[in-house]
Design brief:
Keywords: Membrane, Transmembrane, Transmembrane helix. This is DoxX protein. The protein contains four helices and no strands. It is an all-alpha fold. The protein has one domain. Helix 1 runs antiparallel to helix 3 and helix 3 runs antiparallel to helix 4.
């Protein structure tokens, strides 16, 4: 059984979550504020753009490895900012 459908579905969910940062940014304010207490709305939009790009890149097999690397880097970036702002 191929993991392809699961990976594509994950990409769609990540991309949809990213786009929702632009539609309903208030839903992400508390989570974003813990990593970026200053200019939180701006960072909400930046995070939404990053998540949308990663999600779309996960869908296409040609960009999937790059998307996975981006996802790891993005997670490390968010985690480091959360720790730094405690």
């Amino acid at each position: 059984m191929s993991a392809e459908p699961l990976i594509k579905a994950t990409g769609l969910v990540v991309a949809a979550t990213g786009l929702s940062h632009f539609v309903r940014p208030e839903l992400f304010e508390s989570a974003t504020k813990s990593a970026f207490p200053d200019n939180t709305l701006q960072h909400t939009y930046i995070d939404g753009g990053i998540e949308t790009a990663i999600g779309l890149a996960l869908i296409a097999p040609k960009t999937r490895k790059l998307a996975l690397a981006g996802l790891l880097a993005y997670g490390a970036y968010l985690g480091a900012n959360i720790v730094r702002n405690r």
